[in-house]
Fold these 2 entries.
Entry 1:
Amino acid sequence: MLPLPTGEFQAYLFDCDGTIVDSMPLHYTAWRQTLDEWDCPFPEHLFYAWAGRPTADIVADLNDRHGLDMPLAAVVARREARYEQLLPTATGIPGVLHHIDDAHGRIPFAVVSGSTRAAVTASLDALGILDRFDVLVCAEDYTRPKPDPEPFLRAAELLGVPPRSCLVFEDADLGIAAAAAAGMAAVRVPQPRQG
C-alpha cells in the first residue's frame, strides 16, 4: 500500500510512465532499439536521470552531447512506434492502481506527463483505465516541462482545483520538484526495480 500525506485533496494528478504504468523498462528498450540505428549511446543511468523529460528534448540533448544530427521528428516517431509495439506487455503499479480504484468517482484525476498524448493514451488504454481520467496534460500541452510547475498548474486549472488542493503522484525527481514548485503535495512512487 502506498501511503498518502494527510490532507483533504480535491484532485489527484498522476505522472504516467513509472507512476501509473510500469513502463520505464519498456521505454528504455524502445530508446535503445531506436538510438542503435544512429549509433547513439544512451546509458540506462542517464535515461532514469532524465525521466519525465519530453522525448524531443532528450533527442536534442543527445545530438548535442554526441555531435549527431538525428532528425527530431523521425526519432521521436520511431521511438513512439517501438514503445507501442511493447505496450501489450505493460503492467500497472499496484499501489497507484489501488488509489485510482479507491478514489475514482469521488475526486477528479489528471495525468500530467512528459510523454506525447498518443503515448499516454496508448499506455492508459493498455491497462483499461483511460476513461478514469478527466484531463490529460501531455508534452504538446505546455511550453516549459518538469521541473517547471507549468504542467501541474495547467492540470489544476483544467480541473478547476486550486494547486494547494492537488495531490501529485510521481516517480521522478523532476516531477517531485515540479509539484513542489506548483505548491502541491506529492507522494513519491517507488519504481518496482527500486523495491
Entry 2:
Amino acid sequence: MTTAPAPLVFSSISDVERDVGIAKETLRVWERRYDFPRPQRDANGERVYPPDQVYKLSLVKRLLDQGYRPGKIMALDVAALGELGGKAPSGPAARGIDDPEIALCLGLLRAHQVAELRQRLSQAMLSMGLQRCVVELIAPLTTAIGIAWTQGQMAVFEEHLYSDMLQTVLRNAIVAASGERHDGQRQPRVLLTTVPQERHGLGLLMVEALLALEGAHCISLGVQTPLSDIVDAARTQGADIVALSFSGVSSPRAAVDNINELRLRLGAATEVWAGGGGVAMARRHLQPGTVLDLGSIGSAVARWRERHGAPAGDVPAAA
C-alpha cells in the first residue's frame, strides 16, 4: 500500500514577509519587474506562494544582504543562488569560514552550545579589545553564519539563537563602554536607527558598541523608524549625528533618497552617517564622509571632534 504524498503547504504574502523578511510591497514590485515570484491565488483571490518559491526568496534575500542587486540575481535558479551565496562578499573583514576561530564558533552554534559561544565572544572582547573584536571577529562571524545558512549548513532557528545571543553580548559591551571616561573630549550625541524598510538590527548594535567605545552618547530607537519620527527624536534629543544602517534589502537608490530626505529635514546642524551593504555602492552619490564601515567609526568621531572642538569649560586652566 502506497502512502499519498503530503499536500504542499502554501504561504500567504504575510507569511513570506514575516518569515523571509521581504516586505509585501517589494514582493509585488518584483513580481511585475522580474516575473518572480509567481504566486498562485487562493479561494479568496489572495496571493499564496509554494515552498520552492519561498526557499528561493530566502536565498535571494540572503544575497541582497550581502550587497547584490535584485536585477543581477532574480533570474538565477536555486543552485546558482546557493553557489553565489557561498562566496564571501568582499570587504574589510579578513577572516572567512575557514578561519580556525570562525570555524570553532560555527561549530559551537551548530552544536547549540550558545552559552559557550557567548562566553567565547565575551572573552575575545577582553583579550582583543572591543573595537578589534567587533571588526575582526564578530562582523565576519555574522557574515559566515549567513553564508552557512545559504549553503544549507545552518537552520533558521540557529541563526535566531545567534542573533539573540549576540544582542546580549553587544548590549553588555555597550553598557561597559558607556561607563568609560573621556575627559576633555566633546561627546557627540548619536541617534541610531533604521528606516521603515530595514529590519536588520545586528549591524546597528555593532555600530553602537563602537561609538560608545569612542565616548559618543548613543540614543537607540531600534529598527524601522519612520523618517518623521527620526527627525522629531533627533531634535528632541539634541542629536549631533543620526546614524543609519542599510542592509542589502534596501536598494542603493532608496538609501540615497532616505539619507538626502533626512539631511534636508534635519538641516546642517545634524550630520547623517550611514553604513551597510545597501548604501556602500552609493557612496559616490552622497556627501563625503556620509558612508562609513565599522573600521572607520573611530576616525569619523575623531574628525567630528576636530570640527567641533572641546566643549565650553573643558579648556585646561593655566598653571
